[in-house]
Amino acid sequence: MTAVERLVAEFELIDNWEPHLADGGPLEPGSLIARVHGPMRSLLAMERIALNFLQRLSGIAT
Amino acid sequence: MPKKPGAASFKAQPETILVFALDSVSSSALRNVMKNNTAHRFFIVSCYNGEGQAADLTLVTHVAAAAEFSPTRLMRKAIATASALAQGRDVPTVVEFPINVSDPVSHSGGRQGTCPAVEQRRGSRKGEEVGLHAQVPGGNTAVADRLRSYGGRSDMCDSQYEFGERERRNVNVLIAQALAEDLGQKGDITSAAIIPSHARGSARLGGAVGRGFWPE
Predict the structure, then answer these.
(1) Cα-to-chain-centroid distance, residue B99
(2) Nearest chain A Cα to B118, which residue?
(3) Which of B179, B202, B207 sits opposite A27 (nearest CB)?
(4) Tens digit of pLDDT for each residue in A24-42?
(5) How many CB atoms sit inside 10 A of residue B15's CB?
(6) Mean of the per-residue pLDDT values for chain A?
(7) Are the beta carbons of B146 and A34 closer than 8 angstroms?
(8) CB distance A21–B191 less than 8 Å?
(9) What pLDDT does residue A20 have?
(10) How far is residue B6's CA from residue B28's CA, in Å, rounded to a whole number?
(11) For the whole prediction, is pTM greater than 0.90?
């Protein structure tokens, strides 16, 4: 989550970033990890990179 | 290589071997195994500058390669170096391969570089040096405080899950690499082509529904 938060900051979306999990927290299928809103271009540009980090690092963590 | 590179496995491998450690956890495990069991063996360490771990793995005789971060590129270079050794060519005792990405540790006195993708995205800020830390007010302390405020277990932020200087540096390098790889010099051309500049939206990140690879 820290990595993704820093990525969100890079896209200047940090003020609109609402994480619902802390690093190392358990994650259930369907549970909410975070919300973010802002310019659509920034959201879509960030989305794939953020998912890459979340998926990869969550895989390592588990 | 065996799937579990334990001490017995290394001792049972008399010939030249290549060993890849693809993240810091496996690197640490590898280092511990090698330190205790592979005296007088030679390793090529392939990691980004500043890790400072090369000396731990640089011994004499057989060949291994430990690649941390940017694994594809580092592995390619490590294999090339191992190949050069196998062919009898001279290589330095310690072979280091720098990665030319942003080094955002300016707050701790390190060099501050630029990431092309970030510079391009911030075209309106000509001349501004880009440090990835710059957009996180308060740095790591602020992040930890915010994680506590989100309802996370505060002990996680205070103990084993808090990022230290090395982790922060690694994360920032990885982010810079990801931005450079995914957005490059041109940015996200798909979004720019199909989304009006004034459009706004919201997104939810959630856990996927499914069992993944977990066994029954």
Answers:
(1) 10
(2) A10
(3) B207
(4) 777 777 778 888 888 888 8
(5) 6
(6) 82
(7) no
(8) no
(9) 85
(10) 13
(11) no
